[in-house]
């Protein structure tokens, strides 16, 4: 078989699985709960793969691998910031959210704070921020397709939306979860298989370390200071602790214990993915020390270093990373529009059947909007991924983590803290963030701090949330 | 100069992190079962 035929065969096999599962999901989706929460049937293994697949995106395969190519080992330590975020979520967020058992994250905001206005604001901010996040994923597929296959970015973006939109629209969270499981397996296997291939070219780990260390000693040591790593790690951790696209997936799992085990299984997948991406990034530095852009490292790895078979698997893994994240974002934004805006503000008596279709239509519409942003290339992929994460954390970390663990939080506190966090992050991004190297204070830390202070002060000055709403989230 | 503590230390720290997480998760599940919480 030629390299082209191998690529086509692997891609055909992958898409056959994806479309098969989505059609199965379509015939098992009867109610809105089926569409948005898979009927609460997801177990720990599939759940863990879902959480990992959702988090691992184009940013990991292109941006993070490129970051390791350029700066070496030390960037790997920011994963501990991410895992601190997961620990906060597992201890303080996931159990209460799963016991609540709603359908969207804005559901939590509306019920906990007894406020439709807070729910609407949360849904609107989620839609805006995740539309920007989608832009990064579309931009990444455009760049990968044009770099490797010479395909026009718009064609690649259309193909991504058509394929991902197809399975998201058909089977909702149910089919998406099983497809996420397959995608995580592909990502882990492709990365694990790529390591020995790259090592065989570099002469092993020790030889690679000695070689890249001789080019630039900081690559094998500490490129970033502990202060840098703490700032970046905190930004990622804060955003993952209250990430709507992860939290909505808790609702789909069987029970609280399943959610905790799923987070643990996703941590194992993240360790495997994070460490292999690091080794591959540094390995590519050893093989190609002078690439024009670090973001090219993963594409060149797949197209030049690996065999056609493994290279094709690696490309499918990259596509899987993008598709799984796009899928999760679309489910959250579609749900926010259909469940939290349409059902609450436009048609409270809408039937399950109608809501499923509103979900489907809004997924398609909200999937098309980022095309315009992606075609204008407002920033590089990794920057967009990091920026959206900062905004999500700035307006959502406090209402979620404090809101679930401090009874005195009120609807006014939640609304003003979301607004203050969002605007604080925005203002810092366009002003003092430019001198980050001097002060080390990131926009996300400003956003979260401002949001927390506002939440506490405004909540203390306003009437408490009604007891019937608090009883859902607090035992005593 | 080859890989050092920043490289090898990560694998040790990550393994410890995952281990501690699962010990906590099993303990939390046992506590919930005792209290009859699902």
Beta-strand segment tally of chain A = 0
Low-confidence stretches of chain B: none
Tell me the Rg of chain B in angstroms.
Answer: 17 Å
Mean pLDDT across the residues of chain A is: 92
Mean pLDDT of chain B: 93
If helices are DSSP runs of H or I spanning 4 or more residues, what is the number of helices of chain A? Answer: 21
Biggest pleated sheet of chain A:
none
Topology-level CATH name of chain A: Sodium/glucose cotransporter
Q: Give helix % range of chain B.
A: over 70%
Number of helices of chain B: 1
Q: Biggest interface and its residues per chain?
A: A-B, 33 and 21 residues
Brief overview, please?
With 476 residues, chain A is mostly helical.
Description:
The complex is a heterodimer of chains A (476) and B (38). Chain A has 476 residues and is mainly alpha-helical. Chain A has one domain: Up-down Bundle (Sodium/glucose cotransporter). Chain A is 80% helix and 0% strand. Chain A contains 21 helices and no strands. In chain A, helix 9 crosses helix 12 (256-287). Chain A is globular and about 65 Å long. The termini of chain A are far apart. The model of chain A has no long low-confidence stretch (mean pLDDT 92). Chain B has one helix at 5-35. Chain B is mainly alpha-helical. The longest helix of chain B has 31 residues, at 5-35. Chain B has one domain (1-38). The chains are: A mainly alpha (476), B mainly alpha (38).
What is this structure's SSE topology?
The complex is a heterodimer of chains A (476) and B (38).
Chain A: H1 3-27, H2 32-37, H3 44-55, H4 58-71, H5 79-100, H6 105-112, H7 116-148, H8 153-202, H9 205-215, H10 226-241, H11 244-251, H12 256-287, H13 297-305, H14 308-346, H15 352-368, H16 370-376, H17 381-405, H18 411-429, H19 436-439, H20 443-460, H21 467-470
Chain B: H1 5-35
């Amino acid at each position: 078989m030629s390299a082209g035929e191998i690529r086509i065969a692997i891609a055909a096999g992958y898409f056959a699985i994806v479309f098969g599962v989505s059609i199965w999901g379509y015939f098992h989706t009867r109610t809105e709960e089926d569409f948005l929460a898979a009927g609460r049937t997801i177990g720990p293994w599939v759940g863990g793969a879902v959480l990992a697949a959702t988090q691992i995106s184009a940013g990991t395969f292109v941006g993070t691998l490129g970051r390791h190519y350029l700066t070496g080992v030390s960037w790997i330590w920011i994963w501990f910031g991410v895992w601190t975020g997961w620990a906060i979520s597992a201890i303080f967020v996931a159990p209460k959210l799963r016991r609540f058992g709603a359908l969207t994250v804005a559901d939590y905001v509306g019920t906990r704070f007894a406020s439709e206005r807070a729910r609407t604001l949360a849904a609107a901010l989620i839609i805006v921020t995740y539309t920007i996040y989608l832009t990064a994923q579309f931009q990444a597929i455009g760049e990968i397709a044009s770099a490797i296959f010479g395909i026009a970015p718009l064609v690649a973006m259309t193909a991504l939306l058509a394929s991902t939109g197809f399975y998201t629209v058909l089977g909702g969270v149910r089919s998406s979860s099983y497809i996420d499981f397959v995608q995580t397996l592909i990502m882990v296997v492709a990365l694990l298989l790529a390591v020995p291939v790259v090592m065989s070219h570099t002469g092993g780990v020790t030889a690679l370390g000695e070689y890249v260390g001789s080019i630039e000693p900081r690559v094998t040591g500490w490129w970033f200071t502990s202060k840098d790593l703490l700032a970046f790690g905190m930004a990622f951790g804060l955003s993952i602790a209250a990430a709507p696209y992860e939290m909505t997936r808790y609702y789909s799992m069987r029970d609280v214990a399943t959610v905790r085990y799923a987070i643990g299984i996703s941590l194992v997948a993240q360790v495997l993915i994070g460490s292999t991406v690091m080794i591959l990034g540094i390995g590519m530095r050893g093989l190609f020390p002078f690439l024009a852009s670090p973001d090219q490292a993963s594409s060149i790895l797949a197209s030049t270093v690996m065999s056609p078979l493994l290279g094709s698997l690696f490309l499918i893994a990259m596509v899987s990373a993008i598709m799984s994240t796009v899928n999760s974002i679309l489910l959250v934004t579609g749900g926010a529009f259909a469940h939290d805006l349409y059902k609450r503000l436009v048609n409270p008596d809408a039937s399950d059947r109608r809501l499923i279709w509103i979900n489907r239509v809004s997924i398609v519409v909200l999937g098309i909007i980022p095309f315009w942003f992606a075609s204008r290339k407002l920033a590089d992929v990794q920057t967009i991924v990091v920026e959206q994460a900062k905004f999500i954390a700035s307006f959502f970390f406090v209402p979620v983590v404090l809101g679930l663990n401090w009874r005195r939080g009120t609807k006014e506190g939640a609304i003003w803290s979301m607004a203050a966090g969002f605007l604080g992050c925005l203002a810092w991004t366009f002003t003092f963030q430019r001198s980050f190297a001097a002060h080390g204070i990131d926009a996300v830390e400003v956003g979260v701090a401002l949001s927390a202070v506002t939440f506490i002060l405004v909540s203390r000055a306003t009437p408490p949330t009604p007891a019937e709403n608090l009883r859902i989230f607090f035992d005593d | 100069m080859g890989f050092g503590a920043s490289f090898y230390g990560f694998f040790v720290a990550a393994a410890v992190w995952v281990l501690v997480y699962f010990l906590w998760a099993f303990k939390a599940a046992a506590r919930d079962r005792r209290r009859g919480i699902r």
